[in-house]
Write a structure and sequence with these properties.
- The protein is an alpha+beta fold and 437 residues long.
- It has three domains: 95 residues, no CATH class; 148 residues, no CATH class; 152 residues, Trna Endonuclease, Chain: A, domain 1 (3-Layer(aba) Sandwich), CATH 3.40.1350.
- Helices cover 33% and strands 27% of the residues.
- The protein is built from eleven helices and 18 strands.
- The strands form five sheets. A six-stranded mixed sheet has the order 11-14-15-16-18-17, sandwiched between helices.
- It is globular.
Length: 437
């Protein structure tokens, strides 16, 4: 595919596309440029909505008309239809904004699911530059497979054996062989045996073989390969690739244990992605950053002997309208003795704009600040502490204190910038330990 047919945008950012950048997506008639952009927006509304992109045409200071796209927290790829023909002529690709080391950090977040979300009603081609990062699904599959393997999932499996007494006997087979006197007391019986080596586990092993192959591929980041090298080596001794039966789907049953349901769901994503059909996909970077912050504070809590509660629910009861909240949910609360720290993770650019004073930045921060102060109100101590964490290229922090004029209560709020990098985690935890304690 021609690279000019791919529009690129960063997560939580905006970009303006002029006529030159959009030439592959328009009718080619410069006189219809404004009309073409409006038509382009209308034709691709479903694709833009999928990635939560705000699309609009606008004039610049020189009265030149262009397409302005403002992205959300989602990265991913959607097909774009031409304003000239109405046919798919290219793609919009949204990528991470802050240089995040998602490949290095991903293996650390074993309890979370960051497999891409797919929409098979919007097809894309097999072009590798717009294909979803398949290693994400495969890494999560290996993690879940290891957990499921420890569960020793057993099911009844029908087994054919020869016995000296009839029991669920295959009489057709017996009649064909019993003419020989030596086979008169050899009955081909079927028995139901409770075993871990049943057909459904064999299907999961087949998907495991696909996942390990992908994790060893040249397109997989080196950090992922190194992390899973020993695990893959151990798992590959548990099956023979030539004996595995090829499948294209695994049924999920309501009676399956939870870990098996999760494993099967990820398996079906991998199986779907092995076909020639590709479709629109997205990954929630805000959720990724939230889980990364939770991981960092889990390391800090371990170091301090504290406890961490991720996404606790503060229930809301009583009479309320239909649109009212049912509960409040901070990203995490860290508790040690009578001390409590409330933390909110925000995948926003605030730390990159510390010297700016725009109305947009001010309003967005006020919302974040009010939110974390509301969460901390449930702490009964007078000296409260709260944290708002933003992504940044290095560790950076500001400390502000909110004083109450009505009582002696105060809230010390930390605004912290965190690098999204596996290599930086140890230093980040040490830095947090110094400023908080």
């Amino acid at each position: 595919m021609n690279n000019n047919a791919i529009l690129t945008l960063q997560v939580l950012n905006s970009n303006t596309f002029t006529m030159d950048k959009l030439k592959n997506f328009l009718s080619g008639d410069k006189r219809k440029f404004e009309r073409d952009i409006q038509k382009l927006i209308g034709l691709n509304k479903k694709a833009f909505d999928y990635l939560k992109i705000d699309a609009r045409g606008q004039y610049d200071d020189s009265f030149n008309f262009s397409l302005c796209l403002k992205s959300s927290e989602y990265s991913g790829v959607v097909p774009i239809r031409s304003a000239g023909t109405g046919l798919i002529c290219g793609y919009l690709k949204v990528v991470g904004r802050y240089g995040e080391d998602i490949a290095g950090v991903l293996p650390l977040l074993k309890g979370e699911d960051f497999t891409p979300n797919f929409d098979n009603t919007m097809l894309i081609g097999p072009d590798m530059s717009v294909a979803p990062p398949k290693y994400i699904e495969c890494a999560k599959y290996v993690d879940k497979y290891v957990q499921a393997d420890r569960f020793h999932w057993q099911k009844f499996s029908n087994k054919k054996i020869t016995q000296t007494k009839p029991r669920n006997t295959d009489w057709v087979t017996y009649s064909l062989k019993s003419y020989n006197p030596n086979n008169v007391f050899k009955y081909p019986n079927s028995i139901n045996e409770l075993t871990t080596e049943h057909s459904e586990w064999a299907a999961l092993k087949y998907v495991l073989s696909l996942a390990t192959s992908e994790l060893r591929a040249s397109t997989t980041p080196k950090s992922i390969k190194l992390h899973y090298a020993d695990i893959i080596k151990r798992l590959e001794h548990t099956y023979f690739r030539d004996d595995l039966q090829i499948i294209d789907h695994i049924n999920v049953h309501s009676s399956d244990p939870i870990i098996i349901k999760e494993l099967k769901a990820t398996a079906n994503l991998i199986l779907k992605n092995t076909s020639d059909i590709r479709c629109a996909w997205r990954v929630d970077y805000s959720r990724f950053f939230e889980c990364y912050v939770q991981y960092i504070f889990a390391q800090l809590a371990y170091k301090r002997g504290a406890r961490v509660f991720n996404n606790p629910h503060f229930g809301i009861s009583g009479q309320k309208p239909a649109w009212a909240l049912k509960y409040l949910e901070p990203d995490l609360v860290m508790i040690k003795d009578s001390e409590q720290v409330v933390v909110e993770a925000k995948y926003k650019s605030h730390m990159y704009n510390c010297d700016s004073n725009s109305t947009e930045l001010h309003d967005a921060f006020r919302e974040d600040f009010h939110q974390v102060l509301a969460y901390s109100s449930f702490n009964s101590v007078q000296q409260k502490r709260t944290i708002i964490a933003y992504p940044y290229k290095e560790f950076k922090y500001y400390v502000t204190t909110v004083h109450s004029s009505l009582n002696e209560c105060e809230n010390k709020a930390f605004l912290i910038g965190l690098p999204i990098s596996k290599a930086a985690i140890i230093n980040v935890v040490d830095s947090l330990n110094k400023i908080l304690y």
